Amino acid sequence: MSEKKLFLLDGHALVYRAHFAFITRPLINSKGMNTSAITGFVRTLWDIMKNEKPSHIAVAFDPKGDTFRHEYFPEYKANRDATPEDIVLALPYIRDIVDGFDIPVVSIPTFEADDAIGTLAKQAEKEGFKVYMVTPDKDYAQLVSENIFMYKPSRKGNGVDVLGVEEILDQWNISRIEQVIDVLGLQGDSVDNIPGIPGIGPKTAVKLLAEYDTVEGIIEHAEELKGKMKERVIEYADQAMLSKQLATINTEVPCEFDADKYKISVMNKDKLAEIFKDLEFRTLAVQILENGRNSSGGQQTLFKTNATSTGDTNEVRAIAAHSVAEKTINDVEHEYILVDATDAQIALAEKLKTAKVFCFDTETTGIDANAAELVGLAFSTKAHHAYYVPVPEDQAMAQEVVEIFRSVLEDPDVTIIGQNLKYDMLIMKWYGIEINGTLEDTMIYHYLLEPDLRHKLDYLAETYIKYQMVPIESLIGKKGIKQLSMRSVEIDKAKEYAGEDADITLQLKDLLEPKLKENQVDKLYRELEAPLIKVLVDLEFAGVRVDADYLHAYSEELQQLIKEKEKEIYQQAGSDFNIASPRQVGQILFERMKIPYRWKKTKSGQYSTDETKLTELSNDHPIVNDILKFRGYSKLKSTYVDALPKMINPKSGRIHSSFNQALAATGRLSSNNPNLQNIPIRTPEGRRVREAFIPRDQNHILLAADYSQIELRLIAEISNEEAMLDAFVKGQDIHAATASKVYGVPIEEVSSDQRRNAKTVNFSIIYGAGATNLSQQLGIPRKEATALIKAYFAQYNGLKLYMDKVVEEARENGYVSTLLGRRRYLRDINSRNGFIRSNAERLAINSPIQGSAADMIKVAMIDIHHAFQEENLKSKMILQVHDELVFDVYTPELERIKPIIEDKMKNAIPDLKVPILVSMDTGNNWLEAH
């Protein structure tokens, strides 16, 4: 008797997985339909039928509407995005295809697919079946038993993972399967909006369960815990129990396993042939219908011609991605050579100099380029070949190895390929090497081609080469205190890992570079982004000096303010409580003190005490104002005042922030470690943080140069709005000029309220805000806001024409562009979902403005940097924050560099109709200079 094998497919989970597997290159047929989800689902289903030969099968789908979980937690899954329109359109086809295979569909009102599958799995197990739950959803792990398995298809088609009890226990690091729901209850699930206990992740959850076995056990022994953990468990005990309940799959839903009903049957080839033809699934039709099981009749050869339509090409690509295993280092022939002898290193340097074009990568002890040490150098000159040069830990010996490659790395005539070259160049700069050649950075390539997507090397390799790279965690372990340094990795493993990095990056360069020209962003790369890499290397290397003594003293001041404010709050509340706890703040304000609460509660059933809501109450309730001040002081102290001194680099005595060139889709730079762009300036206490940023020594002074109203000026330029252009040309206060036109009063009679309203409208228009948003910002009725917008566009009709035009162009082209040709792709611009489409329309309006401003300051940075080098100046650019540049100026050069900075900033984009204004000031700290 053949083995009884039941396969239960989680329909919605597999559809979502298939849709997003092709999200970077969706499969679109000649009718314009995205068939990614359908293709992926059918491939998974057919692979199971063909390879696993189940005796029984069913597909479960989530029912429409709320589930039983919403009855006791209405916010369940409340933060999920709307179902993508392409999936909505795909689901009817998928259900028809399942029906064509004569596979039963299970969908139980008020119960989710996992509840239905859990119930059927447990029933079938009792009848002697081996059950395989086909799903990528981790929650199914709680159902695994001796005869019930998780069957997880790879996202990219690299086989499947079949997980039994042993694999789940090992993967989750637990002692019993039943503890899966305890882990989920403790850590929560942001996807399903299951709250858990704040601050507890999977590692902490596992540690607690190892000691106390269950969520209930942890709560029962909460008093034994220490510090914050004790507070959290006590405060969120009810939430943890609720979360565990929400995460538990119900295995007693009203459905029965009927072996006869779920037995494999024959497919209806006629029905499937019709569907496949409609979808243009030619290859799948041949594979399934000609080579499939015996049918109930119908056509044997569906298509007689070798069509080459869009659908055909997409399908071939989909099948390749789905059914061909990803390549890895183990199954691709390669030659990665260890170069550890000095004479071999010298020979390699000469070979690279002759080659003129090569890929370069560094291996280091950490991700902070200003603190890490070299572990090795990797090079590649052709696909599947690479060289790895280990670098000794002794820094004197390390420098000797580096010196061998100085002449080739500093050669201005070589072309150096890399992935995130800024990091490698910064590492080498700390070893005295200045890379001067032409830079080909695959990360920046991809950022220009797909600004909204990820740009990491492993992602690019999977997407464009169908290659799965060696994960760094396999060498050094996962993040945490036990993670090893690259220095500890065996040299042969390091050679393979580093060689692969250089090899794959070289291959990606050849694949992506032609796409720059195809997408007309080649010039943007050559003239803007590539030169900017060198500028950012020097800017980050220069760093900024911070007065640690001042910050320590200020920290004590803030601590005193926090204590005083804490006392005042306790006195008004009538008792002590944890002011840092939003839950306790809500209880004190809205239950004990009976302050009216007029908003919805949070998704976890608590009062919302965010800054926006408390600010609305602050004028009428002194305790609320004091709580806001307490929070402000606390955040200022912990985030900036106490944190900044710890970030001072011991090698330089300065802070070296990292500037992200490939993050914001608009083209803007961002920074981290620390995020200097978030240094607060709105409050007197916040502004004092800028006092800590000082010149490098007594012979220097800080200079800040800032664009004035650059985005408003650029929208006037791009829209060619004559009235707005005229106001800027005449040097008028643009907000007063706008108020004058909108309210119909002479500019000198504009009131402060009218100017404030006009200013809000001016900036709201840039971000595509509507009447609802504007009414909230101004605190006026929506009707009044509508009238204000109407009056605004009556005066600035050119803006309205521009906005309509740019949205229409986005609909036709699928993207919008900046003045310098940077593209922002808007895949949802034609969505049938009004909310999604409106958001895309706002991006269409704003992206050319914000992106042009970003491009403009980048050009200015490049030109100023070049001018400083040409004139051999000691002064350095040290910060870029929004529309502002900060310089550490050698005092004798001050009057010499002022006109350079102003000229380069004003003329970054030449021949503009609108005048560009730049304000400059100097000081002995950043606050004085700003």
Task: Outline the secondary-structure elements.
Layout: E1 5-10, H1 11-21, H2 36-52, E2 56-60, H3 68-72, H4 85-100, E3 105-106, H5 113-126, E4 130-134, E5 148-153, E6 160-163, H6 165-172, H7 179-187, H8 202-212, H9 215-220, H10 227-235, H11 237-247, H12 269-279, H13 282-290, H14 310-323, E7 335-338, H15 342-355, E8 357-364, E9 374-382, E10 385-390, H16 395-404, H17 406-409, E11 415-418, H18 421-430, E12 438-441, H19 442-449, H20 457-465, H21 473-476, H22 491-518, H23 522-542, E13 545-546, H24 548-573, H25 582-592, H26 611-618, H27 622-641, H28 643-646, E14 658-660, E15 670-672, H29 684-690, E16 693-694, E17 700-707, H30 710-719, H31 722-729, H32 734-743, H33 752-766, H34 771-778, H35 782-795, H36 797-813, E18 815-817, E19 823-825, H37 834-870, E20 876-881, E21 884-890, H38 894-906, E22 918-923, H39 926-929
Parallel strand pairs: 1-2, 1-4, 2-3, 4-5, 7-10, 8-11, 11-12
Antiparallel strand pairs: 5-6, 8-9, 9-10, 13-16, 14-15, 17-21, 17-22, 18-19, 20-21
Helix pairs in contact: 1-2, 2-4, 2-14, 4-12, 7-8, 7-11, 12-13, 18-23, 19-22, 20-22, 23-37, 24-27, 26-27, 30-36, 30-37, 32-33, 32-35, 33-34, 34-35, 35-36, 36-37, 37-38
